[in-house]
Design goal:
Elements lengths: L1 H15 L17 E5 L8 E6 L2 E6 L14 E10 L6 E5 L6 E4 L4 E10 L5 E11 L43 E3 L4 E4 L3 E3 L3 E3 L10 E8 L5 E2 L8 E3 L4 E10 L4 E21 L4 E3 L7 E3 L5 H7 L6 E8 L12 E9 L4 E5 L4 H4 L2 E10 L5 E8 L3 E7 L3 E8 L2 H4 L10 E11 L2 E8 L4 E8 L2 E9 L8 H12 L4 E8 L5 E3 L5
Parallel strand pairs: 10-17, 30-32
Antiparallel strand pairs: 1-8, 2-3, 3-6, 4-5, 4-7, 7-8, 9-12, 11-15, 13-16, 14-15, 16-17, 17-21, 17-29, 18-20, 19-20, 20-23, 21-22, 23-24, 25-26, 26-27, 27-28, 28-31, 29-30
Length: 508
Protein backbone atom coordinates (compact mmCIF):
# COMPACT_ATOMS: atom_id res chain seq x y z
CA UNK A 1 0.00 0.00 0.00
CA UNK A 2 2.95 2.36 0.39
CA UNK A 3 3.29 2.70 -3.37
CA UNK A 4 -0.41 3.26 -3.89
CA UNK A 5 -0.60 5.89 -1.20
CA UNK A 6 2.52 7.57 -2.58
CA UNK A 7 1.05 7.66 -6.09
CA UNK A 8 -2.04 9.37 -4.73
CA UNK A 9 0.09 11.84 -2.81
CA UNK A 10 2.06 12.72 -5.93
CA UNK A 11 -1.23 13.04 -7.85
CA UNK A 12 -2.53 15.47 -5.28
CA UNK A 13 0.65 17.55 -5.42
CA UNK A 14 0.83 17.59 -9.20
CA UNK A 15 -2.87 18.43 -9.45
CA UNK A 16 -2.39 21.29 -7.08
CA UNK A 17 0.79 22.49 -8.85
CA UNK A 18 2.04 24.05 -5.61
CA UNK A 19 4.05 23.23 -2.53
CA UNK A 20 2.47 22.58 0.83
CA UNK A 21 2.19 25.57 3.08
CA UNK A 22 1.36 25.55 6.81
CA UNK A 23 -2.33 25.83 7.63
CA UNK A 24 -4.29 26.32 10.78
CA UNK A 25 -3.54 23.90 13.57
CA UNK A 26 -6.56 22.38 15.18
CA UNK A 27 -7.14 22.47 18.89
CA UNK A 28 -7.20 19.50 21.21
CA UNK A 29 -10.86 18.65 20.53
CA UNK A 30 -12.32 15.82 22.49
CA UNK A 31 -8.86 14.85 23.72
CA UNK A 32 -7.58 14.17 20.19
CA UNK A 33 -5.03 16.72 18.89
CA UNK A 34 -5.28 17.43 15.19
CA UNK A 35 -3.88 19.80 12.60
CA UNK A 36 -4.77 20.86 9.09
CA UNK A 37 -2.48 21.98 6.30
CA UNK A 38 -4.03 23.66 3.26
CA UNK A 39 -2.42 23.31 -0.13
CA UNK A 40 -2.24 26.86 -1.38
CA UNK A 41 -2.43 27.88 -4.99
CA UNK A 42 -5.54 25.86 -5.79
CA UNK A 43 -7.99 27.48 -3.35
CA UNK A 44 -7.09 25.13 -0.54
CA UNK A 45 -8.06 28.01 1.71
CA UNK A 46 -11.68 27.43 0.67
CA UNK A 47 -11.93 24.38 2.93
CA UNK A 48 -13.31 25.15 6.35
CA UNK A 49 -12.69 22.36 8.86
CA UNK A 50 -13.83 21.84 12.43
CA UNK A 51 -13.56 18.75 14.57
CA UNK A 52 -14.83 17.12 17.73
CA UNK A 53 -12.86 14.04 18.60
CA UNK A 54 -12.63 11.99 15.42
CA UNK A 55 -15.68 13.67 13.87
CA UNK A 56 -14.72 16.25 11.29
CA UNK A 57 -16.96 18.70 9.45
CA UNK A 58 -15.91 20.02 6.06
CA UNK A 59 -17.54 22.85 4.17
CA UNK A 60 -16.86 25.66 1.77
CA UNK A 61 -15.96 29.05 3.06
CA UNK A 62 -16.99 32.17 1.18
CA UNK A 63 -14.80 34.53 3.14
CA UNK A 64 -12.06 34.47 0.49
CA UNK A 65 -12.98 36.12 -2.84
CA UNK A 66 -11.40 33.17 -4.63
CA UNK A 67 -13.86 30.82 -2.98
CA UNK A 68 -17.16 32.64 -3.55
CA UNK A 69 -17.57 31.95 -7.30
CA UNK A 70 -17.15 28.23 -6.74
CA UNK A 71 -20.35 27.85 -4.71
CA UNK A 72 -22.26 28.58 -7.91
CA UNK A 73 -20.78 25.57 -9.68
CA UNK A 74 -23.06 22.76 -10.65
CA UNK A 75 -21.41 19.90 -8.82
CA UNK A 76 -18.83 19.37 -6.10
CA UNK A 77 -16.90 16.12 -5.57
CA UNK A 78 -15.91 15.65 -1.94
CA UNK A 79 -13.33 12.93 -1.09
CA UNK A 80 -11.31 11.79 1.94
CA UNK A 81 -8.27 9.50 1.62
CA UNK A 82 -6.42 7.72 4.42
CA UNK A 83 -2.63 7.84 4.01
CA UNK A 84 -1.67 6.62 7.51
CA UNK A 85 -2.03 4.02 8.69
CA UNK A 86 -1.73 2.51 5.24
CA UNK A 87 -4.61 0.33 4.13
CA UNK A 88 -5.76 -1.63 1.11
CA UNK A 89 -8.81 0.62 0.77
CA UNK A 90 -7.70 4.20 1.49
CA UNK A 91 -10.96 5.85 0.43
CA UNK A 92 -13.02 6.91 3.45
CA UNK A 93 -15.66 9.11 1.80
CA UNK A 94 -16.63 10.06 -1.73
CA UNK A 95 -19.83 12.08 -2.18
CA UNK A 96 -21.26 15.05 -4.08
CA UNK A 97 -22.51 17.20 -1.25
CA UNK A 98 -22.61 20.46 -3.12
CA UNK A 99 -20.78 23.01 -1.00
CA UNK A 100 -21.39 21.22 2.30
CA UNK A 101 -21.18 21.13 5.21
CA UNK A 102 -20.27 17.46 5.23
CA UNK A 103 -19.32 15.36 8.23
CA UNK A 104 -17.04 12.31 8.32
CA UNK A 105 -15.64 10.31 11.17
CA UNK A 106 -11.92 9.61 10.88
CA UNK A 107 -11.04 5.98 11.70
CA UNK A 108 -8.41 7.02 14.23
CA UNK A 109 -4.99 8.59 14.62
CA UNK A 110 -3.39 9.00 11.21
CA UNK A 111 -2.81 11.19 8.18
CA UNK A 112 -5.68 12.01 5.82
CA UNK A 113 -6.09 13.90 2.59
CA UNK A 114 -9.25 15.87 1.75
CA UNK A 115 -10.25 17.26 -1.65
CA UNK A 116 -13.22 19.11 -3.12
CA UNK A 117 -13.45 19.55 -6.90
CA UNK A 118 -16.01 21.65 -8.74
CA UNK A 119 -17.56 21.43 -12.21
CA UNK A 120 -19.43 23.97 -14.29
CA UNK A 121 -22.79 23.38 -16.05
CA UNK A 122 -20.92 22.03 -19.08
CA UNK A 123 -19.33 19.28 -16.96
CA UNK A 124 -15.84 20.77 -16.92
CA UNK A 125 -14.05 19.96 -13.67
CA UNK A 126 -11.73 22.58 -12.18
CA UNK A 127 -8.61 22.09 -9.99
CA UNK A 128 -9.33 20.63 -6.61
CA UNK A 129 -9.28 22.35 -3.29
CA UNK A 130 -7.05 20.11 -1.16
CA UNK A 131 -5.49 19.79 2.25
CA UNK A 132 -3.99 17.37 4.77
CA UNK A 133 -5.32 16.49 8.18
CA UNK A 134 -3.15 14.89 10.85
CA UNK A 135 -5.09 13.32 13.71
CA UNK A 136 -2.95 12.81 16.80
CA UNK A 137 -0.01 14.61 18.37
CA UNK A 138 2.47 15.89 15.76
CA UNK A 139 5.43 17.35 17.66
CA UNK A 140 7.59 18.26 14.65
CA UNK A 141 4.76 19.56 12.43
CA UNK A 142 5.46 17.28 9.48
CA UNK A 143 1.87 15.93 9.48
CA UNK A 144 3.03 12.48 10.56
CA UNK A 145 1.52 11.72 14.02
CA UNK A 146 4.12 10.96 16.66
CA UNK A 147 2.64 7.51 17.16
CA UNK A 148 3.79 6.61 13.63
CA UNK A 149 6.76 8.94 13.27
CA UNK A 150 10.20 7.31 13.59
CA UNK A 151 11.72 10.81 13.79
CA UNK A 152 9.10 12.66 15.90
CA UNK A 153 11.39 15.57 16.76
CA UNK A 154 12.76 16.27 13.27
CA UNK A 155 10.33 17.17 10.48
CA UNK A 156 10.64 14.88 7.47
CA UNK A 157 9.24 15.95 4.11
CA UNK A 158 10.26 15.06 0.58
CA UNK A 159 11.38 17.45 -2.15
CA UNK A 160 7.71 18.27 -2.90
CA UNK A 161 7.01 19.06 0.73
CA UNK A 162 4.89 15.93 1.23
CA UNK A 163 5.35 13.98 4.50
CA UNK A 164 7.89 11.15 4.31
CA UNK A 165 5.62 8.11 4.57
CA UNK A 166 6.79 5.75 1.82
CA UNK A 167 9.29 3.65 3.76
CA UNK A 168 7.89 2.07 6.96
CA UNK A 169 11.43 1.82 8.33
CA UNK A 170 11.96 5.56 7.75
CA UNK A 171 8.43 6.83 8.44
CA UNK A 172 8.50 10.59 8.99
CA UNK A 173 12.29 10.78 8.89
CA UNK A 174 13.81 13.59 6.83
CA UNK A 175 15.95 12.93 3.80
CA UNK A 176 19.25 13.89 5.35
CA UNK A 177 21.97 15.45 3.28
CA UNK A 178 24.69 13.16 1.96
CA UNK A 179 27.80 13.02 4.09
CA UNK A 180 30.84 13.13 1.81
CA UNK A 181 34.40 13.11 3.13
CA UNK A 182 37.28 13.22 0.65
CA UNK A 183 39.76 12.44 3.43
CA UNK A 184 42.55 14.41 5.04
CA UNK A 185 44.99 16.42 2.92
CA UNK A 186 47.95 14.43 1.61
CA UNK A 187 51.61 15.38 1.17
CA UNK A 188 53.43 13.04 -1.22
CA UNK A 189 57.21 13.24 -1.09
CA UNK A 190 59.22 10.90 -3.26
CA UNK A 191 56.17 9.29 -4.82
CA UNK A 192 53.49 10.32 -7.29
CA UNK A 193 50.83 7.69 -6.59
CA UNK A 194 48.63 7.04 -3.59
CA UNK A 195 45.31 5.46 -2.62
CA UNK A 196 42.53 7.84 -1.63
CA UNK A 197 40.39 7.21 1.44
CA UNK A 198 37.17 9.04 0.68
CA UNK A 199 33.74 8.06 2.03
CA UNK A 200 30.16 8.82 1.01
CA UNK A 201 27.24 8.00 3.33
CA UNK A 202 23.51 8.49 2.66
CA UNK A 203 20.25 7.68 4.46
CA UNK A 204 18.99 5.17 1.87
CA UNK A 205 16.29 7.53 0.65
CA UNK A 206 14.59 7.53 -1.74
CA UNK A 207 13.84 3.79 -1.40
CA UNK A 208 15.36 1.78 -4.21
CA UNK A 209 17.78 4.56 -5.08
CA UNK A 210 21.51 4.04 -5.50
CA UNK A 211 24.46 6.06 -4.29
CA UNK A 212 27.03 7.03 -6.89
CA UNK A 213 30.31 8.89 -6.50
CA UNK A 214 32.99 10.31 -8.73
CA UNK A 215 36.46 11.83 -8.30
CA UNK A 216 37.55 14.82 -10.37
CA UNK A 217 40.42 17.30 -10.52
CA UNK A 218 39.40 20.82 -9.49
CA UNK A 219 42.80 22.43 -9.98
CA UNK A 220 46.44 21.54 -10.35
CA UNK A 221 49.33 21.56 -12.82
CA UNK A 222 47.58 18.72 -14.66
CA UNK A 223 44.72 16.27 -14.34
CA UNK A 224 45.10 13.52 -11.78
CA UNK A 225 44.63 10.02 -13.16
CA UNK A 226 42.16 7.93 -11.13
CA UNK A 227 42.32 4.15 -11.46
CA UNK A 228 38.61 3.93 -10.62
CA UNK A 229 37.03 7.41 -10.44
CA UNK A 230 33.70 5.94 -9.29
CA UNK A 231 35.29 4.46 -6.14
CA UNK A 232 35.89 6.66 -3.07
CA UNK A 233 38.96 4.50 -2.39
CA UNK A 234 40.46 4.81 -5.87
CA UNK A 235 44.19 4.79 -6.51
CA UNK A 236 45.41 8.01 -8.11
CA UNK A 237 48.58 9.17 -9.84
CA UNK A 238 49.80 12.65 -10.67
CA UNK A 239 51.46 13.74 -13.93
CA UNK A 240 53.69 16.42 -12.43
CA UNK A 241 54.73 17.85 -9.06
CA UNK A 242 52.59 20.59 -7.57
CA UNK A 243 49.42 21.28 -5.62
CA UNK A 244 46.26 19.46 -6.66
CA UNK A 245 42.69 19.95 -5.43
CA UNK A 246 40.64 16.78 -5.86
CA UNK A 247 36.87 16.61 -5.42
CA UNK A 248 34.71 13.65 -4.40
CA UNK A 249 31.10 14.17 -5.52
CA UNK A 250 28.27 11.85 -4.46
CA UNK A 251 24.61 11.67 -5.46
CA UNK A 252 21.66 9.50 -4.46
CA UNK A 253 19.51 10.61 -7.37
CA UNK A 254 17.94 13.50 -5.44
CA UNK A 255 20.66 15.11 -3.38
CA UNK A 256 24.24 15.85 -4.36
CA UNK A 257 27.18 16.74 -2.11
CA UNK A 258 30.94 17.02 -2.47
CA UNK A 259 34.13 17.46 -0.48
CA UNK A 260 37.59 18.58 -1.56
CA UNK A 261 41.03 17.21 -0.79
CA UNK A 262 44.42 18.88 -1.32
CA UNK A 263 47.33 16.71 -2.46
CA UNK A 264 50.81 18.26 -2.56
CA UNK A 265 53.20 16.28 -4.75
CA UNK A 266 56.96 16.75 -4.46
CA UNK A 267 59.56 14.64 -6.25
CA UNK A 268 62.86 13.49 -4.81
CA UNK A 269 65.86 13.50 -7.16
CA UNK A 270 69.40 12.21 -7.05
CA UNK A 271 71.94 13.28 -9.67
CA UNK A 272 75.43 11.77 -9.63
CA UNK A 273 78.48 12.81 -11.65
CA UNK A 274 81.38 10.35 -12.05
CA UNK A 275 84.86 10.06 -13.58
CA UNK A 276 86.48 6.66 -14.16
CA UNK A 277 89.39 5.23 -16.15
CA UNK A 278 88.27 2.52 -18.58
CA UNK A 279 91.81 1.20 -19.18
CA UNK A 280 93.31 -1.49 -16.93
CA UNK A 281 96.53 0.54 -16.54
CA UNK A 282 97.68 4.10 -17.22
CA UNK A 283 101.15 5.55 -17.69
CA UNK A 284 103.01 6.96 -14.72
CA UNK A 285 103.87 10.55 -15.73
CA UNK A 286 107.06 10.44 -13.60
CA UNK A 287 108.30 7.20 -15.16
CA UNK A 288 106.61 6.97 -18.58
CA UNK A 289 109.14 4.37 -19.78
CA UNK A 290 111.35 1.81 -17.92
CA UNK A 291 114.41 3.51 -16.38
CA UNK A 292 117.88 2.06 -15.63
CA UNK A 293 118.94 2.41 -11.98
CA UNK A 294 122.66 1.77 -11.38
CA UNK A 295 122.84 1.56 -7.60
CA UNK A 296 119.37 1.72 -6.04
CA UNK A 297 115.77 2.41 -7.05
CA UNK A 298 114.34 5.97 -7.23
CA UNK A 299 113.12 8.12 -4.37
CA UNK A 300 109.40 7.60 -5.13
CA UNK A 301 109.74 3.80 -5.34
CA UNK A 302 111.79 3.81 -2.12
CA UNK A 303 108.69 5.12 -0.39
CA UNK A 304 106.57 2.32 -1.82
CA UNK A 305 109.01 -0.63 -2.00
CA UNK A 306 111.92 0.18 0.23
CA UNK A 307 115.54 0.02 -1.07
CA UNK A 308 116.19 -2.32 -3.99
CA UNK A 309 119.91 -2.57 -4.92
CA UNK A 310 120.94 -2.15 -8.55
CA UNK A 311 121.74 -2.34 -11.22
CA UNK A 312 118.04 -2.71 -12.16
CA UNK A 313 115.28 -1.55 -14.46
CA UNK A 314 112.43 0.32 -12.80
CA UNK A 315 108.97 0.88 -14.31
CA UNK A 316 105.62 1.91 -12.92
CA UNK A 317 101.97 2.42 -13.99
CA UNK A 318 98.73 3.53 -12.39
CA UNK A 319 95.94 1.01 -12.15
CA UNK A 320 92.83 2.04 -14.06
CA UNK A 321 89.22 1.36 -13.09
CA UNK A 322 89.01 -0.99 -16.11
CA UNK A 323 85.30 -0.91 -17.00
CA UNK A 324 82.98 0.53 -19.59
CA UNK A 325 79.78 2.27 -18.55
CA UNK A 326 78.62 4.24 -15.53
CA UNK A 327 78.45 1.36 -13.07
CA UNK A 328 81.65 0.12 -11.49
CA UNK A 329 84.61 1.65 -9.70
CA UNK A 330 85.23 5.37 -9.91
CA UNK A 331 88.18 7.69 -9.58
CA UNK A 332 85.96 10.50 -8.36
CA UNK A 333 82.27 11.29 -7.99
CA UNK A 334 79.91 13.92 -6.60
CA UNK A 335 76.17 13.74 -6.11
CA UNK A 336 73.27 15.77 -4.83
CA UNK A 337 69.85 14.76 -3.57
CA UNK A 338 67.05 17.31 -3.52
CA UNK A 339 63.31 17.93 -3.63
CA UNK A 340 61.52 19.44 -6.64
CA UNK A 341 57.99 20.79 -6.10
CA UNK A 342 57.48 22.00 -9.66
CA UNK A 343 58.65 25.54 -8.96
CA UNK A 344 61.83 25.34 -6.87
CA UNK A 345 64.64 23.05 -5.74
CA UNK A 346 64.87 22.58 -1.97
CA UNK A 347 66.14 20.24 0.75
CA UNK A 348 69.50 19.74 -1.02
CA UNK A 349 71.79 17.16 0.59
CA UNK A 350 75.28 15.96 -0.39
CA UNK A 351 78.46 14.74 1.29
CA UNK A 352 82.04 15.94 1.64
CA UNK A 353 83.34 12.64 2.96
CA UNK A 354 86.43 11.70 0.88
CA UNK A 355 85.75 7.99 1.38
CA UNK A 356 82.43 8.40 -0.44
CA UNK A 357 83.66 10.87 -3.05
CA UNK A 358 87.05 9.59 -4.20
CA UNK A 359 88.32 6.18 -5.21
CA UNK A 360 91.68 4.76 -4.23
CA UNK A 361 94.61 5.37 -6.58
CA UNK A 362 97.05 2.44 -6.99
CA UNK A 363 100.59 2.88 -8.28
CA UNK A 364 102.26 -0.39 -9.22
CA UNK A 365 106.09 -0.58 -9.37
CA UNK A 366 108.12 -3.30 -11.07
CA UNK A 367 111.83 -3.74 -10.10
CA UNK A 368 113.87 -5.97 -12.42
CA UNK A 369 117.44 -6.43 -11.08
CA UNK A 370 119.99 -7.38 -13.74
CA UNK A 371 120.48 -11.10 -13.38
CA UNK A 372 118.00 -11.21 -10.47
CA UNK A 373 114.33 -11.91 -9.78
CA UNK A 374 111.76 -9.23 -10.61
CA UNK A 375 109.97 -7.67 -7.67
CA UNK A 376 106.61 -5.80 -7.60
CA UNK A 377 105.17 -3.49 -5.01
CA UNK A 378 102.17 -1.13 -4.77
CA UNK A 379 101.44 2.20 -3.16
CA UNK A 380 97.85 3.37 -2.61
CA UNK A 381 96.27 6.67 -1.60
CA UNK A 382 92.95 8.45 -1.81
CA UNK A 383 92.49 11.82 -3.50
CA UNK A 384 90.86 14.59 -1.46
CA UNK A 385 90.92 17.60 -3.71
CA UNK A 386 87.37 18.96 -4.15
CA UNK A 387 83.76 17.94 -4.77
CA UNK A 388 81.08 20.57 -4.28
CA UNK A 389 77.38 21.19 -4.91
CA UNK A 390 76.22 24.79 -5.40
CA UNK A 391 72.67 26.13 -5.94
CA UNK A 392 72.04 28.00 -9.20
CA UNK A 393 69.01 30.24 -8.71
CA UNK A 394 65.93 28.46 -7.39
CA UNK A 395 65.65 25.79 -10.08
CA UNK A 396 69.17 24.46 -10.54
CA UNK A 397 72.40 23.06 -9.08
CA UNK A 398 76.06 22.91 -10.09
CA UNK A 399 78.03 19.73 -9.38
CA UNK A 400 81.79 20.34 -9.49
CA UNK A 401 84.34 17.51 -9.28
CA UNK A 402 88.17 17.83 -9.09
CA UNK A 403 90.13 14.62 -8.53
CA UNK A 404 93.89 14.85 -8.08
CA UNK A 405 96.49 12.07 -8.30
CA UNK A 406 97.81 11.94 -4.72
CA UNK A 407 100.66 9.53 -5.55
CA UNK A 408 102.23 11.99 -7.97
CA UNK A 409 101.59 15.09 -5.89
CA UNK A 410 103.19 13.52 -2.82
CA UNK A 411 106.84 14.28 -1.88
CA UNK A 412 109.04 15.19 -3.64
CA UNK A 413 106.24 16.92 -5.63
CA UNK A 414 107.78 16.40 -8.98
CA UNK A 415 106.05 15.37 -12.16
CA UNK A 416 102.76 16.91 -11.12
CA UNK A 417 99.78 15.47 -13.06
CA UNK A 418 96.71 17.59 -13.89
CA UNK A 419 93.56 16.88 -11.89
CA UNK A 420 90.50 15.20 -13.40
CA UNK A 421 87.90 17.97 -13.79
CA UNK A 422 84.20 17.52 -14.38
CA UNK A 423 81.26 19.95 -14.09
CA UNK A 424 77.53 19.32 -14.42
CA UNK A 425 74.73 21.88 -14.26
CA UNK A 426 71.13 20.74 -13.84
CA UNK A 427 67.97 22.84 -14.13
CA UNK A 428 64.23 22.44 -14.69
CA UNK A 429 62.82 24.33 -17.70
CA UNK A 430 59.34 23.06 -16.73
CA UNK A 431 57.68 20.95 -14.06
CA UNK A 432 58.38 17.67 -15.84
CA UNK A 433 61.55 18.38 -17.84
CA UNK A 434 65.16 18.51 -16.73
CA UNK A 435 68.21 19.91 -18.53
CA UNK A 436 71.79 18.69 -18.04
CA UNK A 437 74.81 20.74 -19.15
CA UNK A 438 78.23 19.09 -18.85
CA UNK A 439 81.75 20.43 -19.21
CA UNK A 440 84.53 17.90 -18.64
CA UNK A 441 88.11 17.03 -19.47
CA UNK A 442 88.69 14.88 -22.52
CA UNK A 443 90.08 12.19 -20.25
CA UNK A 444 89.09 9.86 -18.69
CA UNK A 445 85.44 8.73 -18.97
CA UNK A 446 82.91 11.16 -17.52
CA UNK A 447 79.22 10.46 -17.08
CA UNK A 448 76.17 11.16 -14.99
CA UNK A 449 72.94 9.50 -13.93
CA UNK A 450 69.63 10.92 -12.65
CA UNK A 451 67.05 9.21 -10.44
CA UNK A 452 63.48 10.35 -9.81
CA UNK A 453 61.77 9.00 -6.71
CA UNK A 454 64.40 6.30 -6.37
CA UNK A 455 64.28 5.07 -9.98
CA UNK A 456 66.98 5.89 -12.57
CA UNK A 457 65.65 7.48 -15.74
CA UNK A 458 68.67 9.03 -17.47
CA UNK A 459 72.32 7.93 -17.82
CA UNK A 460 74.83 9.48 -20.20
CA UNK A 461 78.53 9.07 -20.94
CA UNK A 462 79.82 12.57 -21.59
CA UNK A 463 83.23 11.36 -22.71
CA UNK A 464 84.54 7.98 -23.84
CA UNK A 465 88.27 7.29 -23.39
CA UNK A 466 88.36 3.51 -23.71
CA UNK A 467 90.33 3.65 -26.97
CA UNK A 468 92.86 6.32 -25.95
CA UNK A 469 96.48 5.18 -25.75
CA UNK A 470 97.50 5.61 -22.11
CA UNK A 471 100.92 3.88 -21.91
CA UNK A 472 104.41 4.95 -22.85
CA UNK A 473 105.55 8.38 -23.96
CA UNK A 474 102.62 8.82 -26.36
CA UNK A 475 100.25 7.86 -23.56
CA UNK A 476 101.81 10.46 -21.25
CA UNK A 477 101.33 13.11 -23.92
CA UNK A 478 97.72 12.04 -24.50
CA UNK A 479 96.92 12.25 -20.80
CA UNK A 480 98.54 15.64 -20.32
CA UNK A 481 96.82 17.08 -23.38
CA UNK A 482 93.39 15.65 -22.60
CA UNK A 483 93.47 16.42 -18.86
CA UNK A 484 94.21 20.09 -19.54
CA UNK A 485 91.49 20.51 -22.15
CA UNK A 486 88.05 20.89 -20.57
CA UNK A 487 86.33 21.33 -23.91
CA UNK A 488 84.06 18.30 -23.82
CA UNK A 489 80.74 20.10 -23.57
CA UNK A 490 77.10 19.19 -24.13
CA UNK A 491 73.52 20.08 -23.17
CA UNK A 492 70.64 17.61 -23.06
CA UNK A 493 67.01 17.88 -21.98
CA UNK A 494 64.78 14.99 -20.99
CA UNK A 495 61.31 14.39 -19.63
CA UNK A 496 61.56 13.40 -16.00
CA UNK A 497 59.02 10.62 -16.58
CA UNK A 498 60.58 9.28 -19.74
CA UNK A 499 61.41 5.60 -20.00
CA UNK A 500 64.87 4.86 -18.55
CA UNK A 501 67.60 5.19 -21.14
CA UNK A 502 71.38 5.09 -21.31
CA UNK A 503 73.27 7.20 -23.83
CA UNK A 504 76.82 6.00 -24.54
CA UNK A 505 79.58 7.36 -26.77
CA UNK A 506 81.87 5.50 -29.11
CA UNK A 507 85.61 5.68 -28.79
CA UNK A 508 87.25 8.83 -30.10
Amino acid sequence: MGVRARVLAVWVVVLCAAALLPGAAGADTGGVPWSYRAIKGNAGECLAISASGYDFTYSWTTQDPVCRPKVAFDEHSFQVWQYLPQTDNPSIAYVHPQEGPYQVTMPGIGLYGVTISSSDPRGTWFPATTGLVAVGTDSDGDMVPDAMDRCPTVPGVDQDGFPMIDDPDRMGCPHRALVVDAGTDIALSGQDTTTLKGTAVEDELPPGGSLSSEWSTVSGPGSAVFANPASPGSAVSFPAPGRYVLRLTASDGQLTAHDDLVVTVTERYRVELRAWIPQPRVVDPVHPIPEPMLHINSIDSLHACGPVPGPLWQSSTFRGDNHRGFDGNYRGRVWAEFTWDGTAVSAVTFTQDPVQLFGVTHRDFVMEPVGGVARTCTESARATQAATVTPVGTTGLHLDLHTSNPLVDWFPRIGHAPAIDSDLWISFPSRSRITFTAKTDEFPDHGFRAWRNGKPFYTRAVNQAACVNTVGLSGAWNLFQRLTSQTNNGTWTSGTRAAPHTYDRVCT
